[in-house]
């Protein structure tokens, strides 16, 4: 293992516009274009809107938590480093490896999904060929300097944002009868049991769908170490992204709910394998746009490529960060002349190559990859919230003034506590039926990340005798922004 160091060799090339679009694009994907339909079908229009709104608020608090730590200590792959420094090195070690493996698996899942999406146009060509092309493209982009990643994410995100805006405009036109025949109005919002179907239990089930939809927003914190001016760009990206995400999701769900009754079976059956019944496709078709399916298929293709690109970046930077914390082999901390952690990229690519097992073994591997990678994102959010609670306590305990923080999270400690509670509910509710009926195969697939996290944590604690870091010994010096980058340099202790 490498000796612990805070030195950062990656280049600060990401601009503010890159960070804003990375966070926005990371949370607008198949979760909105496809999964939102199942949320409406399950909980009704009102239940879906409340579920997404509450989860969106929680994600905002998580982003502010990450923003407070990232502007104070901008590190590439920051999240695991914060757990290491502020809580317990064993927790940072286990969280970091789980997060790395999860995002590397995500690359495999999204590359496979891209092949399935391409089969919409080319059904007779094996999907693994398209998956290989996408994977090679993702590797090439991530092998270039970080600005190439930022530019690619920027333009892919713009495609998704423009699609959502056009959808909202056309959807409103359908509701008012400007397109698609007679006006629909708002009758579907109160159709049968709507707006709330099933009460509180179904709203809780929407948390799970919404949580998966919002995963990826934490990339703002991970990119902090490579942004040109983290002290200014991160707070701006957090606030602008939150309102855009919340408005896009809530307004989109509202439009879908107005145009399609919650009882529509198409809302429950939508998937990347049948884009013709995506709620977005159905609304476009209601407006009389015959090419809707092809357009949405193209948009979803950009969404999965964007997710794969982000996954490769996140996993590479996490491995790089752990190498500099002494929690991964030193070679993973080495960079190319352009500042890219090349060996960490190779390791992530190796895991991503599990993509091709789907073509050899069959579709069961695809389902396994999705199930086994699902829980890690919520565990990551719990680690972020816990790290923020410890950071703030250590900051105050060591006599520093909160006024010197470049960015301060809103409504602390309510935000991180809410995140911990909701994420715990979602983690337990991943597959409650499997728990009740003792279906061990499903339990293992669904909750695989939990025992892995525990095993890694116990391994590190037993081998390196790590423990909860006392508040007065928490390292608040490493990775501090230079005085020229923000108005406040190293925080000053309050006078006695």
UniProtKB/TrEMBL annotation:
InterPro entries, alphabetized: AA-permease/SLC12A_dom, Amino_acid_permease_CS, APC_YAT
Segments passing through the bilayer: 21-40, 46-63, 128-149, 161-184, 196-214, 242-263, 283-308, 340-362, 368-389, 410-428, 440-460
Record GO terms (molecular function): amino acid transmembrane transporter activity
Domain Amino acid permease/ SLC12A residues, every copy: 18-464
Pfam families documented for this protein: AA_permease (PF00324)
Membrane topology, record value: Multi-pass membrane protein
Protein name (database record): Amino acid permease-associated protein
Organism: Limosilactobacillus secaliphilus
